[in-house]
From TrEMBL:
UniProt keyword Transport present: no
SUPFAM superfamilies associated with the record: PLP-dependent transferases
Highest taxon, organism lineage: Bacteria
Keywords assigned: Decarboxylase, Lyase, Pyridoxal phosphate
One Gene Ontology CC term in the entry: cytoplasm
Homology family: Belongs to the group II decarboxylase family.
Taxon lineage: Bacteria, Bacillati, Actinomycetota, Actinomycetes, Kitasatosporales
A Pfam family that the UniProt record links to this protein: Pyridoxal_deC
Annotated protein name in UniProt: Pyridoxal-dependent decarboxylase
């Protein structure tokens, strides 16, 4: 099913999870007063998971953040602990959300380990692959998503590693029968005798009624490039990210957080009070029209968590352009750090 993007796809996945776990009455009567639904997602899961929980009447506090490792992947042992905690508290885990390509680092959660735990506890597994799903085009990167076929639902978004204009979201389910709770009958759209006569409707498979012909651009791209052609573009972006990481690693002023998984490079300008300097150097680059550099913060508390981020999605970007960008980061960092030191001097 085509959607507006990862946010809508995540909402649909969690809606079906709610209905499958809590039963069909939840659509009519809401959440039973004696049920405490819980969604388990990593600390680095997309914010749309919390938003979906709110929209579904579960409340954002129903989402419990599962700790991650240094590569920002969900820790299976921590997920097992979260299931145990839910049992002690009398909560009902309705879904586990695994991420295949986090927004910040492109990290892919250990899908097989998570699928094992979800199956053991009879819990719906939704995989948010809005970013990382494009790795499936690449023979080199596709193994990163091994285990995604065990998910009950999956979010993809082709406006990232598919190079499509928005909207280009895709929502997949393993069993079409799980769409049952979305079924609706509107006599002006899908009268029963029309469907019996072979005129199907998508009304029972989507949250939307009015739809755009978004399938056309996807079909044209697949026809023109095929999986191999798209895979070459993905590999080119991944290779560029590896090169950018190497440049960061060999630049004394810069510090790489971790090796790229997909096409994202997370790093910082290494200096005292690095949070202020990195935040300000990024604004300086933007203000002067030199570059638009992403920003993120590592999980945890306290100072030292601000990082810069390059998300390399243009397969035609050159290594020289990346070198120039990192040189501009260093130049800006030196200027900001110098100004900051002079301000702090007595």
């Amino acid at each position: 099913m085509l959607t507006t993007g990862g946010t809508e796809s995540n909402l649909m996945g969690l809606m079906l999870a709610r209905d499958q776990r809590l039963g069909p009455d939840v659509e009519l009567n809401g959440i039973p007063h004696n049920v405490r639904p819980r969604i388990l997602a990593s600390e680095t899961a997309h914010f749309s998971v919390q938003r979906a929980a709110a929209l579904l009447g579960l409340g954002e506090r129903a989402v419990r953040a599962v700790p991650v490792d240094r590569q920002l992947r969900m820790e299976p042992e921590a997920l097992a602990d979260a299931f145990a905690e839910a049992g002690w508290e009398g909560a009902t885990p309705i879904a586990v959300v695994a991420t295949a390509g986090t927004t910040d680092t492109g990290a892919v959660d250990p899908l097989h380990d998570i699928a094992d735990l979800a199956a053991r506890h009879g819990t719906w597994l939704h995989v948010d692959a809005a970013y990382g799903g494009g790795a499936l085009f690449s023979d080199r990167l596709a193994p990163l998503l091994d285990g995604i076929d065990r998910a009950d639902s999956v979010s993809l978004d082709w406006h990232k590693l598919g190079w499509q204009p928005a909207a280009a979201g895709v929502f997949l389910v393993r069993d079409a029968r799980t769409y049952a709770s979305l079924a609706r009958r509107a006599v002006y759209l899908n009268p029963a005798d029309d469907e019996d006569a072979g005129y199907p409707s998508l009304l029972g498979q989507s949250l939307r009624t009015t739809r755009r012909p978004d399938a056309f651009k996807l079909a044209v791209t697949l026809r023109a490039l095929g999986r191999d052609g798209l895979g070459e573009l993905v590999d080119r972006c991944h290779q560029l990210a590896l090169r950018a990481a190497e440049l960061v690693r060999t630049t004394p002023e810069l510090e790489l957080h971790c090796d790229p998984v997909l096409t994202t490079v997370v790093f910082r300008y290494a200096t005292g009070d690095s949070d202020h300097v990195n935040a300000e150097l990024r604004r300086r680059l933007l203000r002067t029209g030199r570059a638009v550099v992403g920003r993120t913060e590592l999980p945890g508390t306290g100072p030292g968590r601000v990082r810069l981020k390059l998300t390399l999605l243009n397969p035609h970007t050159t290594e020289r352009e990346v070198e120039s960008l990192l040189a501009a980061v260093v130049e800006s960092g030196r200027a900001v750090a110098g100004n900051w030191r002079s301000v702090r001097l007595p």
